[in-house]
Amino acid sequence: MKLTTRTAEIIIIGGGVMGASLAYHLSKRGCTDVTVLEKGKAIGEGSTGKATGGFRTQFSTEVNIKLSILSRDKLKTFQEEVGIDSGYSPNGYLFIIHNQETFNKIKSIRTLQNNCGLNDVFDLSINEVQKLQPFINLQGAFGGVYCPSDGFINPINILQGYTNKAKELGVKFIYKCDCEKFEVLNNRIVTVSTSSGVFFAETFVNAAGAWASIIAEKAGIKLNVTPLKRQVAVLQEIDLLPSKLPMTIFLEDGFHFRVRNRQLLLLNPTLPETIDPFDTKVEPNWLKKTHEISKKRIPILKHTSIDIENSWAGLYEMSPDEHAIIGKSELENFYFMNGSSGHGIMHAPALGQLLAEEILDGKAHSLDISALRPSRFKEGKLNLNLHLL
Ligand SMILES: Cc1cc2nc3c(=O)[nH]c(=O)nc-3n(C[C@H](O)[C@H](O)[C@H](O)COP(=O)(O)OP(=O)(O)OC[C@H]3O[C@@H](n4cnc5c(N)ncnc54)[C@H](O)[C@@H]3O)c2cc1C
Predict the structure, then answer these.
(1) Please, which of 19, 175, 258, 376 could form a disulfide with 381 given CB 3.0 to 4.6 Å?
(2) Do 51 and 260 form a contact (C-beta atoms < 8 A)?
(3) Alpha-carbon gap, residue 95 to 386, rounded angstroms
């Protein structure tokens, strides 16, 4: 390919759901001289294409609850605004709780959730849980917590929708474009050198998902975002469980499952065996263990088998307090849109709008996202996360 020198007002590095959402929201505001540089051959090759599509408002901090509520509003009108169905489907999120201490912790955030405008989170007795989710073994369970307006979304549709609409408004997306080096002068990035040439811009945005710290380092900045492998086991059998069931999560160890496209997906968050932090191979031991756990917890799975070929793994982009890192970095014209810690699809609609406001107006005004500022780690002001939610 011929290497060229090009310019844009804003360069976004990473064409996943974050980069695409920001590109769309900038262009919707009239800022159309935007170029997205993506190292993949096509859309969805990063974590966005690996997500299972859960959506929840049930979080334990004000900023995350409010991000979810703003995103939910946007996902409901996504089709009219962007032209594709976001897949928002309020099947509910059901947390199964096994001990009183966990239950008390969850209950302690109810007032915060209510104050943020989240008023449909309910405690459930064992009988009520069993009615909602008749397929699980509730032996030893204490109860449940349920929010009926949580549920599912379609990650690829959201990415495709934002990408298409941004393109329609004039944004350029360049694929197979690996960002290799920045030229930094007087505390500003001047250019980014890539496998497709050199780009000058006024403003640069890091939306590189699990690879974000590598991009920041190329500009001489430390960004604490680390990849974390997450695996998904797919069952061979179809139509084992009805598609109307809620996302069902065993809160104490995080094991969860959902039905997607008539197949059952099992997730069991454990530490990966591999030492390569960017490895995305599915581990046979993990598949075996996860299947065993699922058979105990969902007895109807006793005679099922795992579809090894179609099971997959991807990377979460973890920040130290499991909250997104959004806003200006130490460099004057370099912004971060990183670290959503596994909630990136559900929060991308809100974060794209909010970071566009910060870039264009100097401050996000639809919501106070100062709790997500990159400088919080140096200031020692991390978000206090109830790690259960
Ligand atoms: C198994 C799994 C299940 C998940 N389930 C959910 C869920 O239910 N709900 C939810 O909200 N979230 C979920 N997530 C998390 C979600 O996928 C991420 O939070 C989200 O995709 C992050 O979006 P992103 O745009 O930051 O990252 P990505 O989609 O990874 O995009 C970043 C892009 O940057 C590009 N890039 C990297 N380096 C360079 C470079 N040098 N030059 C150019 N481009 C570069 C990459 O190719 C990539 O496409 C899940 C994740 C996994 C792995």
Answers:
(1) 376
(2) no
(3) 14
Residues 20 and 270: their CA atoms lie apart, in Å, by 30
Query: Is residue 374 lining ligand 1, measured as CB closer than 6 Å?
Result: no
What is the DSSP track for 12-46?
EE--SHHHHHHHHHHHHTT---EEEE-SSSSTT-S
Quote the ligand 1 centre to 142 CA distance (angstroms): 35
Position in ligand 1 atom list of the atom nearest CA 345: 11
- Cα of 105 to ligand 1 centre, how many Å? 30
Atom of ligand 1 lying closest to residue 18 CA: 25
Ligand 1, residues 47, 162, 173, 229: which to mutate, most atoms within 8 A of Cβ? 47
- Alpha-carbon distance of 284 to 300, in angstroms, equals 22
Query: Which domains are present in the chain?
Result: 4-53+156-225+320-379 (3.50.50.60), 89-151+227-318 (3.30.9.10)
Q: Cβ contacts of residue 206 below 8 Å, gap of 6+?
A: 13, 14, 212, 215, 216, 223, 329, 334, 335, 336, 337, 338
Closest ligand 1 atom to residue 346 Cα is 11
Cβ–ligand 1 contact at 39 (below 6 Å): yes
- For 262-285, what is each residue's pLDDT tens digit? 999 999 999 999 999 999 999 999
pLDDT digits (tens, 9 = 90+) for 319-365: 999 999 999 999 999 999 999 999 999 999 999 999 999 999 999 99
Rounded distance between C-alpha atoms, residue 150 and residue 147, angstroms: 6
Indicate whether residue 269 lines ligand 1 (CB < 6 A).
no
Q: Which atom of ligand 1 lies at the shortest distance from residue 231's CA?
A: 1
Listed residue (381, 370, 375, 382) closest to 66, CA to CA: 370
Distance of CA 123 from the midpoint of ligand 1 (Å): 33
- Angle between helical axes of 17-28 and 155-168 (0-180°, round to 10): 40
pLDDT in tens, 223-259: 999 999 999 999 999 999 999 999 999 999 999 999 9
Specify which residues 174 forms β-bridges with.
37
Angle between helix 62-76 and helix 344-361 axes, rounded to 10 deg: 90
Task: Please give the structure tokens belonging to residue 175.
Answer: 């694929």
54 CB under 6 A from ligand 1? yes
3-state percent helix, strand, coil for the chain, nearest multiple of 5:
30, 25, 40
